[in-house]
Amino acid sequence: MDHAARIEETIQGIYHAFEHPGQHPADSGLTAIDNWIQALDGLGGSALAGLQGELRNLRGHVQNDDRPAIANSLQHLGQETSLMARNMHDGVGDHLRHLGQVLITAAGNLKMS
Questions:
Q1: Alpha carbon of 30 to those of 17, 25, 45, 63, 97: distances in Å?
Q2: What is this structure's pTM?
Q3: Is 4 helix (H, G, I), strand (E, B) or coil?
Q4: Helix (H, G, I), strand (E, B) or coil at 2
Q5: Which of 18, 49, 73, 100 could be disulfide-bonded to 58 (CB atoms 3.0-4.6 Å)?
């Protein structure tokens, strides 16, 4: 799966989780997080290493069902994703910018629920 398709799949998964909270088990979210950690593995760069670290934090928060920590982690991931995408002027950059916005929105929705 290419990065654009993986990003789109993640966006759709986040939308689905918030539209149907009872139908989206934590195991599904953990699998998605693990897939992203693995996808970023070996790509190098401190920004990606930071994202992997935050994804690992998010994984722990999801396992512990710590909703405030999940929201904070999603907010951080959204901001970092948006920053990484700001100088990318291709289809992947567009997908990353959208993902950043969705993560920030998801964090806000979680904080309000």
A1: 13, 9, 24, 8, 22
A2: 0.84
A3: helix
A4: coil
A5: 73
- Return per-residue pLDDT of the chain as tens, 113 residues: 677 788 888 878 787 777 776 666 677 788 888 888 888 887 767 777 888 999 999 999 988 888 899 999 999 999 999 988 888 877 778 888 989 999 999 899 888 87
CA 4 to chain CA centroid, Å, is 14
Site of tokens 């920030």: 104
For residues 83 and 80, give the distance between their C-alpha atoms in angstroms, rounded to a whole number.
5
Nearest to 81 by CA among 92, 70, 67: 92
Distances (CA, A) of 105 to 45, 66, 92, 100, 101: 26, 18, 20, 9, 6
